[in-house]
Design a protein that fits this description.
With 295 residues, this protein is mainly alpha-helical. It has two domains: 2-163, Chitosanase, subunit A, domain 1; 176-252. It has helices at residues 2-24, 44-53, 66-78, 90-101, 103-112, 120-136, 141-163, 176-207, 211-281, 284-294, and strands at 27-28, 38-39, 42-43.
Length: 295
């Protein structure tokens, strides 16, 4: 029983890690990244600490083995957020957040979003919203924001499908272009609506001679328009991520069907070959006797 539980835990960990590694990439030494020299998301400092605790000499993180990488992610992030006890989908959401922004912050946001006291789908949605807002406030957003946004959107899409025990949600936009059009239209309408409403308010305050009030109203309009635009942009990213997930799932199903058909043909050929071999191995007299008895 314990062995089966461990196997399931390892399977879930590896599934979540595969997603994270897709976005962490390979070797990196970006001047804008405070982590510096990094290999598959593991910084040189983290790698040095990992080897020092084991009494091993320092080594270039670019030479890190896959086994070392997996142990660092499991002990330093998965175990740190209690990945084994988190629910499917929730585990991916919290784990990837921990890798991106630290286990302490990921756990704190998970608790803030209700933790195990709420439905996992709601927790996933709220965590991703908090995560995106946190990342957007960072100074490095201007350098990495586009990639972060795609990563959070993809994480929410996959985590939501995992919550429902599926590879992708059942209801998706038909085309990515439609999702982009809708999100763009919503963004424009929200921003224009906020601007019109705000302009009316400014005109009113200016007509009454209150300059301070007019400035305050202008600030509110700008903030409101920015919030509407940001939310619309975020929903557009989520729609694109869900569409991409559906397309990928469709391709995987087609490939699986093709492989299944090939296996069937191989099995049929093997059965026919075995029958012919069996027939050829028997004496002619036996075959004739069987035919007569069959009649």
């Amino acid at each position: 029983m314990m062995q089966a539980t461990f196997a399931e835990s390892e399977r879930r960990f590896q599934a979540c890690l595969a997603f994270t590694l897709k976005y962490e990439g390979g070797k990196s030494n970006d001047k804008h990244d405070p982590g510096g020299r990094t290999m598959q998301g593991v910084t040189q400092a983290t790698y040095d600490s990992f080897r020092a605790k084991r009494g091993l000499a320092r080594k270039d993180v670019f030479a890190m083995s896959a086994a070392e990488r997996d142990e660092i992610y499991r002990r330093g992030y998965w175990n740190a957020v209690n990945g084994d006890v988190l629910r499917p989908g929730e585990d991916l959401c919290v784990f990837d957040f921990a890798v991106n922004s630290g286990p302490a912050r990921a756990c704190a946001i998970w608790k803030k979003c209700g933790g195990s006291n709420r439905l996992p789908a709601d927790v996933v949605h709220d965590i991703c919203a908090h995560r995106l807002s946190f990342l957007h406030a960072l100074k490095t957003w201007k350098y990495f924001g586009k990639g972060w946004g795609r990563r959070v959107a993809a994480c929410e899409a996959l985590a939501t499908s995992m919550v429902h025990g599926k590879a992708a949600p059942a209801v998706l936009p038909k085309k990515a272009s439609e999702a982009k059009h809708r999100s763009g239209k919503a963004s424009t309408m929200a921003t224009v609506g906020a601007s019109v409403a705000g302009s009316a308010g400014i005109a009113h305050y200016m007509s009454t001679g209150s300059t301070v009030a007019a400035i305050a109203a202008a600030v509110i309009v700008l903030l409101g328009g920015g919030i509407f635009f940001f939310q619309s942009w975020r929903h557009g990213q989520r729609a694109d991520a869900l569409t991409d997930a559906a397309a990928k799932l469709k391709e995987e199903h087609a490939e699986l069907d093709q492989k299944t058909e090939t296996i069937k043909k191989i099995q049929q050929a093997a059965t026919a070959k075995a029958a012919l071999a069996d027939l050829a191995s028997k004496p002619a007299a036996v075959r004739i006797a069987k035919k007569r008895s069959a009649k």
